[in-house]
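Input (Polypyrimidine tract binding protein 3):
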Amino acid sequence: WSSGLPTVDGTDGLCVSERAPCIPSRVLHLRQLPFNITEQEVLALALPFGRVSKLITLKAKNQGFLEMASEEAAVTMMNYYTSAPPTIRNQPVFIQYSNHRELKTDNLTNQRAALQAISTAAMHSGTMAPGSDGRGVVHGQSPVLRIIVENLFYPVTLEVLQQIFSKFGSVLKIITFTRNNQFQALLQFSDAVHAQHAKASLDGQNIYNGCCTLRIDFSKLSALNVKYNNDKSRDFTRSDLPTGELDPTAAFSVALPTYGASAFPPTFQHTGLSVAAVPGSLMSPPRVSLQMAPPAIHSVLLVSNLNPESVSPQCLFILFGVYGDVQRVKILFNKKENALVQMSDATQAQLAMSHLNGQRLHGNVIRVMLSKHPVVQLPRGGAGQEEQVLTRDFSGSALHRFKKPGSKNFNNIFPPSATLHLSNIPSSVSEEDLKDLFSSRGFTVKAFKFFQKDRKMALMQLASVEEAIEALIVLHDHLLDHNQHLRVSFSKSTI
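Output:
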């Protein structure tokens, strides 16, 4: 239907190279649209926020213009995408207010009919719904989502859910539980529009490549009543709630509605995961993917904003090794604040990226993203000594945590935290010995506790997450006694 639209060449008042105006307008200017984008894909960005009255796409210039039915809808859309930039086909799209107050197009009757047809189709597919308000939200729709995670290959924590769903609005409360042998969660947004948009964008997507598939419905509950803040339930509006460790079954007081039981799908086997055929995944950073074509999948990460005075290949090997088996590390010779880290597979790369992007290392907030390089090349024979030192091959390392199929380490992958999990502690090593070991390296020990049932393990709380990250790097594999080496990982628990 776009054949009825005018050719936009500047003569009708539309300027393709607009400056970024700050004055709100019903007309929004979209840039860096993918090649051969469809009108439906552009509309899918806007329909959750209200009715679109006019649309022009400039495919040759990878740009477009949307006119919303109201300025309020345009402002809501702009505010949302400012905090959660959209992507189409895994490509970032930039949106700004246009200098124009309205779009003047020929053949307006044809366009209105076409927009109405697409909007109606979107309603039936769930993007909007009949009886909705100006933002596309059904009147009386719950701000609470019920989430089922299928193909639970990796553990999904409350923190992971919060990280994904907070891209769509303010997450107030989360409750996680297991029902019908399925990991489920109830998640409450501050506003039903955020719940509507999150459901439309995330339902059916994978958290990690090839596994942890989200199935999302609206809950019959209108609000959640969380009694405890712990790893199973959280009220983000109240920091005063107890952890409820004495009564772990009473995390919440709502009666969960009964849903039809469904068979628990088989878990992906790690050795049989076909990475080349999996749909896109959400983690790090979670983003709206409007087309579920597989992204370019690599196992190499680009780590930037490192502290060149402190970083080393060994340091990155230990840190990234918490989330997968690191094969090679290369600190770039001419730009030592950047490094390439090659994991053993794409799933582990996604896992490391989701947990380590934005963490603080040696005083710097590091950035972790997928690299375009399929592998990390080792230096050629003629390379200088410094360049050879900056690149290490760890493929044969004895410190890999995940090389054994079904290793229990797969069940103990958690985000960096101030509390460390220590294991492989010899009986000859006391609490004071361990505290002295960490203190002697400059770390502040806030609390310590041996496991009651197994004194080979303990929890140690340090002053900050950054300190815990550095302590793990320095003291993982530290020789304690008679060839017994300390094992250090991040804990989900606190002391």
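The radius of gyration is 26 Å.
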